[in-house]
Structures are given as C-alpha cells and as structure tokens.
Amino acid sequence: xxxxxxITFTSKAVPLPIENVDTDQIIPARFLKAVxxxxxxxxxxxxxxYDKNNQPVxxxxxxxxxxxxxxxxxxxxxxxxxxxxxxxxxxxxFGFKVVVSSFFADIFKNxxxxxxxxxxxxxxxFLEKIFSVIKEDxxxxxxxxxxxxKFTIVKTGEAASFDINPYKKECLLNGYDDIDYxxxxxxxxxxxxxxxx
Amino acid sequence: MEAKTLFDKVWDAHVVKKIVGGPSVLxxxxxxxxxxxxxxxxxxxxxxxLNVFHPGQTFATPDxxxxxxxxxxxIKDELSRNQVNKLTANCQKHGIxxxxxxxxxxxxxxxxxxxxxLTQPGMTIVCGDSHTSTxxxxxxxxxxxxxxxxxxxxxxxxxxxxxxxxxxxxxxxxLHKGVISKDIALYIISKISASGGTGYFIEYAxxxxxxLSMEARMTLCNMSIECGARGGIIAPxxxxxxxxxxxxxxxxxxxxxxxLAYWKTLxxxxxxxxxxxxxxxxxxxxxxxxxxxNPGMGMGIKANIPDGNDLKGxxxxxxxxxxxxMGFKAGEKLEGKPVDYVFVxxxxxxxxxxxxxxxxxxxxxxxxxxxxxxxxxxxxxVEKQAEEEGLTEILKAAGFQLRQPGCSACLAMNDDKxxxxxxxxxxxxxxxxxxxxxxxxxLLASPLVAAxxxxxxxxxxxxxxx
Lengths: 197, 466
Ligand code: SF4
Hints:
The complex is a heterodimer of chains A (about 200) and B (about 475). Chain A is α/β, with parallel strands linked by helices and about 200 residues long. In chain A, about 35% of the residues lie in helices and about 15% in strands. With about 475 residues, chain B is of the alpha/beta class. Chain B has two domains: about 1-285, Aconitase, domain 3 (2-Layer Sandwich); about 290-465, Aconitase, domain 3 (2-Layer Sandwich). In chain B, strands 5-4-3-6-7 form a five-stranded parallel β-sheet. Chain B has a four-stranded parallel β-sheet with strand order 11-10-9-12. The longest helix of chain B is centred in the first third of the chain and has 17 residues, at about 80-95. The chains are: A alpha/beta (about 200), B alpha/beta (about 475). The interface between A and B is large, with 58 and 71 residues. Iron/sulfur cluster (SF4) binds near residues 63, 347, 411 and 428 of chain B.
C-alpha cells in the first residue's frame, strides 16, 4: 500500500504562528475513536476551529477564506505530545501536503513522513520571514521542491534548504512505504533472531 | 574496546541492519498494543494480506477509552465499545495475548508491563503510545511509535528508526522532604523546556536517581517524552533485579542467571560520550506545579508565574495565549488559588506507591467540600493491593473513593472529563489545552501536591501540612 508520490509544487500557505502546537490541539483525544482511517480532517484543530456549540470560530485560519493552500506554517516545536498518528492523518486528510516549522517533535516527524506529509524545518528567522510575507499578502506563494530540498518564497526568490533523511526522501518521491520494505527483510530478521541465542 | 553508553549497548544489540544513508532496522523484543492506536494497523496488515510475524511478542490491553465505573457492564459509549471489541477480535484472530477488561492483570499498559515482568532490562520495547518511555526505568530501550510503525512491528517484529542522539541528565544529592520523582521530572522539563530533549534519548544518572524506587524511576522515565525526548533510560541495578525477580514473565532458574549476568553489563562505560549533558542538584528542587499549557511551564509551588517581559515575537504570543487559557496573570502566585478537581492516576502516578503516598497524606484529614477527586488505580493489581493494604479504607474515611483502573481523566477519552473552565490538579503528564476535556485547565503536580490540594481545596504546598 504505497503512499502518494511527492511532486514539486507551488501553493499559498496557511499561517499558524503559535508555538508548541501539540497533538491534542491537532486532533483532540475524543476524536480518536474510529477504527478506520477516514474523516480525521473534519476534526483537525477541532477546539480552535469550532466553539462549544460546534459553530466555526470566526477568524480562525482554517475558517476564513483569506487563507488557503496545501502548506501549513506553524511556530516551533510542532507536533509535540502524543504518538497518535491521527495527527498526521488529520493534517493530510484536510489537504495539507507540507508543514513548515522551525522545529518538529520526533514522533510527529516520523508519523508525517510515513504518510507522505513532508515536514520542512527551517531556521527561526526564515520562519518569521514566511509569517511576515503571508501577513503582508495572504495570497503569497511558496514553492516546495523535495528533489532539491528547497523551500522558496516565490515573490522574493528567497529560499531555505531543508534536511531529510535520504532514505525517506526516496520513499516520498517514489511513494514507497516502510512496511513493504520490512516484510521483504523477514528472512534476514529470522537469521538475526537465530544469531542472538 | 570503545566506551559505550547504556543506550548504545542496547541499541547496537538490536540492529538487524542499517540502511546506507538511512535508518536502522531495529529488532523489537516486546510490543504492547491498546485499543486506540492499533485498529488501523490491523486493517493495513489485512489489506496487504499479511499475518502477524511473531504474535507471541505482542501483548494487549484496553486502557485509553474504557469507563472507570461499572466495568463489569457493557461499555455504554458505542464508539469506545467498538474499539475495545475490535482489539479483542484482532487479538483473537492473530493469536495475541490480551488482558481484557476485568481480567485480573488488566490496566494501563505501562503499569501492567512492569507488574507482570514483561518489561526487562536490555529489551527493546515499543507501543503506539508516547509514554512507552516509562519502561526505560528498567534499563530497557523503550519508545512510543505511530500506527504505521505498529503495523511494521506486527508485520516484521522490527521498526525502521534513525538513531537518536544521546543526552545524560545527572541529578546528584538528596531530595527535600515532600519532594518526589514527579517533581524531579517537572523540574528538569521546566529547565530544559518542553522541546529541549527533542532528537535525544536521555539517560538519567546520579545519586538522586539511584536512590529512587523502581516506581519513582518509572514516573521519571515516563515524563521524558514531555521534554520532547524519545525516551529515558536508567541503568539497571539491584533494585531493578529485585523488582523483576519472580514476576509472571520474568526468567526463572538457569535463564534467570544468564539474564542477570547480561543485565549487569548494562551501564554506561567510563569515558563514553554523550551529545549533550546536564547536571542538577536535588536540593534545588521544590514541590512543582505547572501554570501553563505545556509541561515545560512549571515552577516551585511557592514561586510566582514568570512576568514574561523578556519574551518577544511568537514566544510572547504563545506565553500570553497560554496564560489567558489558564485564566492566570503573569507574575502572580498560584499558591492559595482554589481548585475544582483533583485527579490521581495515569501511567505517570497511578501505581501502588502513588496511592500509598496519597493515602498516607490524607489519613485522618478530610477532603475539601469544593473539590471533586478522582482516584484511579493504574491496574487491577494496584486496585487489589490498595484494598489489601487498607488504603481503600483510609481513602474512604477521608472522603475519597477509588475508581476502576484505566487512563481516565489523563486524556479524557471516556466520561472522566474535567468541565470547561475548571481547574484540575492532576498527577498525569500533560497540561495541553483541552487535554482533560474541552477547555479544562490542568495543573500538573505530584501525588503529594494533589493530596494537599484535595484537603485544603486550594493550591497548597504539601510541606505545610506534613
Ligand atoms: S495514562 Fe495517559 S499518558 Fe498514560 S497511556 Fe494512558 S492516556 Fe497515555
């Protein structure tokens, strides 16, 4: 079961200039009761997006037509907290393909990569620049090039390169997934087990 | 021979192979699953037409989503019931051992693993739950994984992992009266921040750490994830061996001797290198409490909330947002503020030692009228032991009631939700917005601070009542 192949694209971005956006904010625990992977995007940032009467909170970035696009830009330490992969599913299911931050929590980063969602980590100063570009012009576009590992502010041409593990890059570009790979290693794993005792 | 850290020793012993320029195929000895993060993994496995590679190495229990009353009745909430039923069906179908609701060994997965001796030094242990770090207290390499990785373990008994960096946190000296391991954890996180450990695996060392009981070590390792670290690990010693010995799944006879000889080699060699090091003095630590919406926003209970004057940009916005959510003002004191709820439980502080401490503190006193207290044992065995030791009686006399085991208000997936706007002093591990229910306000603390709040109805330094 492959993941979607990651292709270079240009898009507007949705800004969330808050730090420590934890997985309980991305998707609150009470929405984790499904036994299948579907519909999590509806509850992305649920408690910021809807009030207690389930009415959309005016002004929240996902509720205003001002912002759109498939890039989410957030403050540092994004995805901290629980290991729930539902967080990555919710973001991807909502339609984002990339999350930009100056720092990601480890488990979230793994989970994102395992689902074709690309975490782009940039310097704090570059992140502030992205926020200010969006603030000036909500329609500003950004280009994400995974092959070149480059994130570009289209209007100014300023770019930041980002890191990704070469193996994970291959997986994303080709839509491969780890499980198929590990299953192909079963014989080696058995040999390893026998060698241990 | 090259000097190695404890972490390196356990990691290296489990690498099946390393992908060039990529992660390692890491062999997993023990895999724990629960009802929330496993169903999608089984769906994936079945879609691929795969069997579970080694069903004997996976153990299951429902904990996140279950009610903490009337556990002998069918679960009322349909979605929760469905998840628990799915777990049962998946385990039956694939030959996985399940300790279902009402089983005498059921409980929060991170409480029952050690109780049953499933957790042992030198093992690799994973679970689709970030607090898997708890098991590091035994010198095991234990970390939380996502659902795709749960599927990997089911399919191959391995995960693909890049090797994390290594950090050592040394705490030397003697703890003051009324200061316990939860305070050490909250203190460390307040010092290095909620993201200070990201990218690292932490080894805890020093005289203050080795003086801790096994249960206290579990509390500390449990909280490692709250500074962003994948896990925490403590070198096993005589206390560790004594704890494991004789438990249900512990090795016996010759196998024990062999295991013990290996376990004794599990410590960091003299001169081994860490990527980062911190040293703290136990005497600097006070009973801790959090004032914000991440576990790094903690302080000594008598301290004032920081004024935040030195913060700028996104940092400032985040700080202000956090305090406004909590209904607190920068620079003010928390001590003396009224409390609505007290929650004692979770994989952080739901073990027998925690209940003992709480019970001893409240003995002969009475619960404040304005406080609703939920005391939730971490497992059926803890529940039974509390009964046998007379703790349940003591609690009752002081106006408290023991609920049935489960994660409960730690993440509020069941009915145990703190109402909007209410303040909860909680022995759990996360004070995120809405963690204990939509718009609930959580103050993380030790069981002693929780006990003091439950008695006075206010945020209180437990040392003032001891
Ligand atoms: S008690 Fe809380 S932190 Fe621990 S496993 Fe349950 S939900 Fe997770």
